Amino acid sequence: MRAFFDPRQLRHAPVAELHNGAFTAYQETPDRAESILRVIAQTERPADRGEAPILAVHSADYVDFLKSAHALWREAGRDGDPIPYAWPIVGRRPLRLNRIDALLGQFSFDATTPIAEGTWDAVYWNAQTAVAAADAVLTGERAAFALCRPPGHHSGADYFGGYCHLNVAAIAAQRARDAGVKRVAILDIDYHHGNGTQDIFWERGDVFYASVHADPATDYPFYWGHADEIGGGPGEGATLNLPLARGARLAEFRAAQARALAAIRAFDPGLLVVSFGADTFEGDPISYFQLTTEDYRTLAGDIAAVGLPTVIVQEGGYATAALGSNVRSFLSGL
Ligand code: Q9C
Ligand code: ZN
């Protein structure tokens, strides 16, 4: 299977995150990509397709913000990486402010995700990696792997959070739509609900979003991913949320994924994007499912059996030493 990666994706390297009330080492490290690179025979560098495929998903003012945020933070006299800490909550009047502290809150939904000096460069190439994998499938490959890092599925059209800045799955899906694929499905099997992907396609009847994830009643991102969220307007019925209780093993996960795949089959898409997170692994340090390395091959086999051209984008997975093996197992089942 063709696999894509650009070394510039390593340039996003925040120092710390706010986790459970304290600053801890940032979990979403460049090492994650290195762990995957060690098990993949060969990766190709993506072509540079410019900002158009990014702007097909994200707003221009959000992209401008991402480019300038770190420099604005420095200009404000700060050390370290910008992390949002004040938000314009629901019901406040919209204000267009220029202060970096205010901008951080305007374009985010949580305080877990810093913008480091190299972040824009890294996420730009991260997006190109997703576009390259999509283009490979659009030109005849059965499947292609985008070694995305940082992940993307918590990022919406105009916000970052959950370690995500640009929504690589959404960018790949929209790329397929713009290339003429009439219906696209996204299967999200990261441990966490992909709130950003859901938001981006909420009112879209042409992109089906199905997610298996930890119940947001107990797990991040809490405010999205409940079973009664099914999309709105022309997108009503094109969102499917399948939350599972903590402790889920292969049997429960596989049954939920089968429901997602049945719905995707009924939607009859021309292309499938898989948001693959390995944070469902039993050894993951921030998650609570019990999948084994072997299980990923089984789950991938079920996905392959649907027979759709498939773009796989990497999302979470924080047991870094095992990440490469888990990804290799998943890709081997496709
Ligand atoms: N104390 C992805 O896997 N931290 N993002 C939760 C819990 C955020 C994970 C804090 C986890 C985001 C793509
Ligand atoms: Zn996750």
From TrEMBL:
Domain Histone deacetylase residue range list: 32-333
Protein name (database record): Acetylpolyamine amidohydrolase
Pfam families found in the cross-reference section: Hist_deacetyl
Matches recorded under InterPro entries: HDACs, His_deacetylse_dom, His_deacetylse_dom_sf, Ureohydrolase_dom_sf
Recorded family membership: Belongs to the histone deacetylase family.
A GO biological-process term: epigenetic regulation of gene expression
Taxonomic placement: Bacteria, Pseudomonadati, Pseudomonadota, Alphaproteobacteria, Sphingomonadales
Cofactor(s) it depends on: Zn(2+)
Source organism superkingdom: Bacteria
GO function terms (MF aspect): histone deacetylase activity; hydrolase activity; metal ion binding
Alphabetized UniProt keyword annotations: Hydrolase, Metal-binding, Zinc
SUPFAM superfamilies xrefs: Arginase/deacetylase
